[in-house]
Amino acid sequence: xxxxxxxxxxxxxxxxxxxxxxxxxxxxxxxxxxxxxxxxxxxxxxxxxxxxxxxxxxxxxxxxxxxxxxxxxxxxxxxxxxxxxxxxxxxxxxxxxxxxxxxxxxxxxxxxxxxxxxxxxxxxxxxxxxxxxxxxxxxxxxxxxxxxxxxxxxxxxxxxxxxxxxxxxxxxxxxxxxxxxxxxxxxxxxxxxxxxxxxxxxxxxxxxxxxxxxxxxxxxxxxxxxxxxxxxxxxxxxxxxxxxxxxxxxxxxxxxxxxxxxxxxxxxxxxxxxxxxxxxxxxxxxxxxxxxxxxxxxxxxxxxxxxxxxxxxxxxxxxxxxxxxxxxxxxxxxxxxxxxxxxxxxxxxxxxxxxxxxxxxxxxxxxxxxxxxxxxxxxxxxxxxxxxxxxxxxxxxxxxxxxxxxxxxxxxxxxxxxxxxxxxxxxxxxxxxxxxxxxxxxxxxxxxxxxxxxxxxxxxxxxxxxxxxxxxxxxxxxxxxxxxxxxxxxxxxxxxxxxxxxxxxxxxxxxxxxxxxxxxxxxxxxxxxxxxxxxxxxxxxxxxxxxxxxxxxxxxxxxxxxxxxxxxxxxxxxxxxxxxxxxxxxxxxxxxxxxxxxxxxxxxxxxxxxxxxxxxxxxxxxxxxxxxxxxxxxxxxxxxxxxxxxxxxxxxxxxxxxxxxxxxxxxxxxxxxxxxxxxxxxxxxxxxxxxxxxxxxxxxxxxxxxxxxxxxxxxxxxxxxxxxxxxxxxxxxxxxx
Length: 737
Fold this sequence. Notes:
With 737 residues, this protein is mainly beta. The chain folds into two domains: 2-91, Sandwich (Immunoglobulin-like); 108-736, Beta Barrel (Maltoporin, Chain A), CATH 2.40.170. It is built from four helices and 43 strands. The strands form eight sheets. The protein has a 22-stranded antiparallel beta barrel. Strands 3-2-5-6 form a four-stranded antiparallel sheet, with no helix packed on it. Strands 12-11-14-13 form a four-stranded mixed sheet. A hairpin with an 8-residue loop joins strand 41 (699-707) and strand 42 (716-723).
C-alpha cells in the first residue's frame, strides 16, 4: 500500500492534454497520439481523453486510428497547456493508418487491418483472425471449437484465455473439459476489433494465459441500422438485425439479434439452431467518463454425427459424412450481464471498473469409443452442468510520470475476483439420449479466484521496460454427490506470475522486443482435491524474441522466435471421470507474418507459424505430443470498396502432425480456401460466401482412438475424424437504414 501511495503521489512534467472525437462528437478510444519531434506517444482512453508528456513549442503531434484519416497539429508556445479537442474524419481502411510505436501489443494494431477489411462472417471465423490460431469443430456446430496454437492442442481452451470486453469465456472445472470456451454467444457483426497476445507475458491476464490470450471488443454504437438475410446449401438460413433504439448527445443504445439454422452436410441432419439476443447501452461524457451496460442471451440445440473411424470409411461401411451413433448432440445456453466503467480522474489518471454475472447451462451427448466398453448398449455418455459466474475488477492507471529529464514512468494496478458456482456436474453412461444406465460422476464445484496485478513501464529514449507481477489466490471446493457418506473437500493455492518485457523502437520503421514471463492454467477442481498439493497449478515459462519491420510505406513484416516450457500436471478426463498424469513439455518455434497494402482498395496478409513440441521425460521417438500442430499458415487477398465491389480470397493450412506419442498414427493436414464477393447498391449489399471453394476433402478434427464397432470381436486403434465442410455456398442480402 505504501508503494501504491508513493506511485500515486509522483507528479508529471509539463504535458499536452485533450480529447479525441469523431465527427458526431463521440469519444474515440485507443487513438495513438504521437509527438513526431520526440517520438513520445500515448493513447486516448475510452472517454477520448489523452495526456502527452513533455510537449514543446513547434512539436508536431499526430493522431492515428484505423478507419480514420490521420490528423496533425503543430504546437505553439502559448498552446502547450491548452486542452485540445481533436476531431478525426472517417476514411477507408488502410495500413497507413497504423503507426509503429513502442508498445507491448503493437502487432495487434496491424492485425486489426485484416479484421476491418474482411469482417468476420460467422462465429467460427472469429478466432481464425488471430495469426497462428487454428480451430476445428467436431460436434455439430453447437459445441465449442477445438483450438490449436503454438504447438498446443488446446482442446476447447485449456491454454488460451478468451474474453469479450473483459467478460471471461473459459469455463473452469467444466463438465466436458477444463477451460471450455464457447464463443457462439457473439453475433459476428457486433465485433469492433480483436486484441491478442501470444505467450504468458501479460499481467492483466491470468488463468489459461499460457499459449496466449484473445479479447474481443464489441461495438459500443452502430452508425446504421442493419438487417441481414442469408441462405445456402444444407438447409442453411440466417437472419440478423441491429437497430439503434437511443441516440442522444450523451447516450446511445442498440439491440442486436441473430437466428441461425442448418442441417449441415451430414447424412443425419444436424437440426442445428442458434438464437442470440443482445442489448448495448452506452453513456459518455467525452474526456470525463464512460459507462457501458450489456445484456445478452444465447441458446443452441443440435444433433451430431460425431467422429467416425477411418477403417469404416476405407472398407465402404460408412460414407465420410455418415455416423456410428447419430444420436449425439446437445443443448446449451448462456445469459450475460456486463458493466464497464471508465473515469478520467485527472489528466493522466484513469479508473477502470467492470462487473459481470453469467448464467450457463450445458448438456452434451457423445460417443467416442462406440462399443468398446459396452458391446450391447454402446458407449454414449452425457456431460451436464448448470453454473453461475460472478466477478468484478478495478484498475487504476497513472501515466506519464516524469522521473527525470528523459525518463517516464507509468503503471497499472488492479485487483479483482471471479467465483464459479457449478451445480450437478455430471458424467453418465446413456443410451440414445433417453436412458441413463449409470452415473459415473456427480457433484458440485465452488471455485474462487482472487487476484491482483501491478504492471509498470519505464520509457527512456527508444527503450521501454515493462516489469510486472500478478498474484492469484484460488480456493477449490468439491462436493461428491455419489459418495455413500458426506464428502466435501477443499484446497487453497497461491501462485505468483512475474513478467519482464523489453521493447526497443529504433524508429517508426523498426521495433525489436524481448518478452519473458511465467503463466499458468488451473486444473479441474476434481483433480485438485484428489491430488491435494501435488502439481495442482502447473506453471508455464516462456520467452519471445522478435521484430516488427516496416521496410517501406504499405508493408509490415513481423517475426518472433519463441520458447515455452510447461511443468508436470494432472489432467481430469471429463469423458471418463479419471485423473491422468501429463508430463513436462517443451515447445519452441517461430512466427512470420506480412501485411501489404498493394493498392488503396487491395490488401494482402499472410502468417506462417512453426512449432516443435515434445514431452521432456519420454525417450526420443515416444515423446511426440498428440495432435500438436507443427506448421500452420493463414492468409488472404482482400478487396475493399472497389467500384462498389468488396470481397476476399482466404486460405488456411495445417501440416500433417502426430496423432499419438510415437507418431505411428498421423493426423492428415489440409489446405482449405474460402471466397466471398459483395456488391453495394445504395442501401443494399448483395453477396455470396463460399467455404471450401475447391471442394477439398479434409478432416476438421482427428484423434488416434481405441474403438470397437458393433460387429468387431476386438478393439482397434485407428484414426477417428470429423469431416470438414465440403463446398458450401451461401447468398447474403444486407439492407441498411
